[in-house]
Every structure is written in structure tokens, then in C-alpha cells.
Amino acid sequence: MSPDIRRILLVAAVSLCPMMVSLGAAASPPLQLAMNGNPVGKMPQGSGTTPSGLKYIQILAPANGAEIAAGVPVVLSYDVTLAPNGNHIHFYVDNHMAGLSHELKGTFSLGTLAPGTHDICIKEATVAHVLIGVNRCILVTVK
Fold it and tell me: Half-sphere exposure (CA, 13 Å, Cβ side) for 115?
């Protein structure tokens, strides 16, 4: 397969990934499913943190509940141990994919965010970019 075709397939898979976890039009934003198939509700760490996410994913900075000055780029510092089905991680801001990485420890720049409260998540995915329900989220406020 040519590198161009591989790139097109990767972009298509990443673009379709949020639709794979949606429970339909009634769910807004799409609910994330835990590995047992149950919807994950609000938790103190952010809207999508799962018990398995607390075990496998650490968001080192910014802290949950941090206030960030407007115009300052948000740089996520993290340390991940992949769950058994995990292959890599996806980064999300307010349920929109911001990027992905195969690096399990490091930093990822989310750029500058608009003023307001934002839900920032790291979610583990399979080699096919299917989210496995291992998520860690924080809430930050940009002022």
C-alpha cells in the first residue's frame, strides 16, 4: 500500500473515531462507554474520567481545576501506562480530538484556548483508533 493511501486511511479512521463511540443523536455530547459497556457519568476529574483511566493515565500538568491566563498556550504533561488493549493515546479538548501520540510520557501542546471552562482528556485507543474506555480528564478555566 502506498504511503499516500495509508495517510488517507489514517485521517479517515481518526475522523470517524468520535462517531464510533457515539450512542446516537440523543446523546450530546457523545457518551463515552466504560469497558463494561456502561455510560461514564460526571466524575470529579472531568466529564470522561473512568476508573481504569485513574489507574493507567496521569495528567501531571495543568492541575485539575487550574486557571490559565488567556493567550497562554496550554501544554499538557502526561504519563501513561497502556491498558491491555491500548496502543496509543488521543488528546481531546471539549470532546474534539486535538491530536494523538504513541509517546507514553511527555508533553503535548493544545495551543491557546478560548476563555471559559474546558474539559481536557487523554483517551487510550487500539491500533485501529477505537477508544477502549480508558480515559483521564481534567477541567481547566481560561481567564
Answer: 3
The domain tally of the chain equals 1
The CA-CA-CA angle for residues 113, 114, 115, to 5°, reads 115
Identity of the amino acid at 35: M
Kindly list the strands in the beta sheet with 88-93, ordered across the sheet, starting from the edge strand earlier in the chain. 67-68, 131-142, 116-125, 88-93, 96-101
Q: Please answer whether residues 117 and 140 qualify as being in contact, where contact means their C-beta atoms are separated by less than 8 angstroms.
A: yes
Report if pTM > 0.90: no
Cell numbers linked to 127: 491500533
Give residue-wise pLDDT tens across range 17-64. Answer: 443 333 333 333 333 333 333 333 333 456 677 888 788 999 999 999
User: What domain range is 137 assigned to?
Assistant: 3-142
Give the pLDDT confidence of 102-128 residue by residue, as tens digits. 999 999 999 999 999 999 999 999 999
Amino acid at 17: C
Alpha-carbon distance 92 to 97, whole Å? 4
CATH for 84: 2.60.40.10
Cell matching residue 128: 485501529
> SS3 of 33, please?
strand
